[in-house]
Amino acid sequence: MNPATVNTGPSTDDRAAGGGAPFLDVRDLSVRFSTEDGPVQAVDGLSFSLERGRTLGIVGESGSGKSVTSLAVLGLHDRARTRVGGSIRLDGVELVGADEARLRGLRGSRMAMVFQDALTALSPYYSVGDQIAETYRRHTRCSRRAAGERAVQMLALVGIPSPQTRAKDYPHQFSGGMRQRVMIAMALCCDPDLLIADEPTTALDVTVQAQILELLAEVQQQFHTSIVLITHDLGVIAGIADDVLVMYAGRSVEHGSVTQVLAEPRHPYTRGLLESVPRLDSAVDVPLKPVPGSPPSLLAVPGGCAFHPRCQSRAQLPDDLCGRLRPELVAEGGHAVACHLSAADPLATPESNDTRRNQGTTP
Ligand SMILES: Nc1ncnc2c1ncn2[C@@H]1O[C@H](COP(=O)(O)OP(=O)(O)O)[C@@H](O)[C@H]1O
Ligand SMILES: [Mg+2]
Predict the structure, then answer these.
(1) What's 49's DSSP letter?
(2) pTM for this structure?
């Protein structure tokens, strides 16, 4: 396949100069489903990149396109109903349009996923040891015995006590947190370079959540794994991510280093998300405020800025600018935001905005 035929977005050449290509490079990704109610553009013009050994947090409310993005990276969308455009390069290899056999080979061995719900992701009919061993054997074709040993070794790595004995147990015999550890063990058994963790701690209580995040950080230190951590909770990524991308209605609305986005959020949506999570670093109890309203249906995304019907700041701009014109993602010092309020001259024409537009959008 010629990657040029599928790379419809800004090419990696448009990025600001700086070293070689990143390990994971997503450019102008779009994912569209055909449904009975019409086309659903679940991801639109999304770009981000990730270096080896680093963590990118992708944050947004339910329905913002986070899982659709991760499934696109892994090539797991149903091809008959889904149109994936743009470019996803893993270590220089184009994944958009790659054939299924190639993607299957890469899944597990080079990239792996931890899902939110370990109970549905694991089979109830096989012991966890057998499931990890089977995954390992599929990629390495080693002996059953070696695969069984690998499974026990992986269970030990993720902190399951008595791994030799527990390998023989079935998923329902584990607590939620321990099951999530089993999922991580399975994802890591073939030493993937990229781990996508999609809401890995959402179903867990706060203490177990912290343990799982700590485990991911340890694994990353040891194996130099690149991690995409997906969550609806900005609080979760504070301690673990290097960079953060905030998604709204399938698009990136803010993107930067964790310090930039959490300490100096520029998009009203990011600020709203921050006010809706408890601050662990705050001595005083600041009352939590959920973002008012709810995310739009992707069958009827509002014109202009998709967030404008919920935005408390839009009145600051004249002539319903936010309702009329979609703000472009503009970066300054690696901190990108798509908001008219942040633009130096919000009333500039889209053409003049173009010259300032960040094409890489990557911090
Ligand atoms: N297979 C599909 N067919 C049609 N619409 C889908 C499909 N998968 C996801 N969507 C829609 O895409 C949007 C984004 O979904 P998703 O990525 O799962 O959100 P989240 O950010 O909560 O992970 C949702 O509106 C969802 O309904
Ligand atoms: Mg999801």
Answers:
(1) E
(2) 0.87
Mutate to test the pocket of ligand 1, among 29, 68, 202 (most ligand atoms within 8 A of CB): 68
- Which stretches within 170-319 are classed as H helix? 176-188, 206-223, 234-237, 258-263, 268-275
CB-CB neighbours of 77 under 10 Å: 16
Give the strand pairing for 55-59 and 226-231.
parallel
CA atoms within 13 A on the CB side of 209: 15
> Is 32's C-beta closer than 6 angstroms to any atom of ligand 1?
no
User: What pLDDT sits at residue 239?
Assistant: 83
pLDDT in tens, 28-57: 999 999 999 999 999 999 999 999 999 999
Residue with tokens 């695969």: 147
- Closest atom, ligand 1, to C-alpha of 42: 12
Residue nearest ligand 1's atom 3 by CA:
33
Kindly report the protein residue whose alpha carbon is nearest to atom 18 of ligand 1: 67
Per the CB < 8 A criterion, the answer to whether 253 and 337 are in contact is yes
Flag whether pLDDT at 350 surpasses 80: no
